[in-house]
Write a sequence for this structure.
C-alpha cells in the first residue's frame, strides 16, 4: 500500500524535527488497527513496493530518530542531521488481525 505523495520538508537549521504524522486511516481495511510499527526505514529517492531495496541507498541511521504508534497514526521524529534530499519512508507494521505489511511514504525532503 502507498501513501499519497506528500512532502514533509525537514530543514537542517530548524528546531521542529517531529512529530510528523504518517496517517494510515485510509490504508487499513475497515475494523483493522495497527498493533505496532515494527520498523521504520528510510531510503534515498523514490521507492515503490515492487522495487528491490538493495537498489537504493538506506538513510535510516542518518535521518530517523524515533517513532510512536497510535493507530491509525505513526508519529515520526527525525534526527538533526545533514541535508539528504528526497527520501522514501517504509513503515513495517503488524496489524491487530496478525497480518504484517509495509506502507511506503515518499516525500521526506531533508534540506
Amino acid at each position: 500500500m502507498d501513501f499519497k505523495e506528500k512532502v514533509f520538508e525537514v530543514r537542517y537549521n530548524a528546531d521542529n524535527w517531529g512529530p510528523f504524522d504518517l496517517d494510515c486511516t485510509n490504508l487499513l481495511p475497515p475494523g483493522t488497527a495497527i498493533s505496532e510499527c515494527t520498523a521504520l526505514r528510510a531510503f534515498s529517492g523514490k521507492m515503490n513496493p515492487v522495487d528491490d531495496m538493495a537498489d537504493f541507498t538506506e538513510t535510516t541511521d542518518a535521518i530517523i530518530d524515533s517513532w510512536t504508534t497510535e493507530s491509525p497514526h505513526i508519529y515520526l521524529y527525525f534526527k538533526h542531521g545533514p541535508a539528504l534530499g528526497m527520501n522514501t519512508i517504509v513503515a513495517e507494521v503488524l496489524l491487530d488481525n496478525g497480518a504484517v505489511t509495509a506502507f511506503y511514504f515518499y516525500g521526506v525532503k531533508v534540506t
Observations:
- Residues 8-110 form a domain with the Immunoglobulin-like fold (CATH 2.60.40).
- The beta strands are 8-10, 20-23, 34-44, 64-70, 73-78, 85-95, 100-110.
- The CA atoms of residues 59 and 96 lie 29 Å apart.
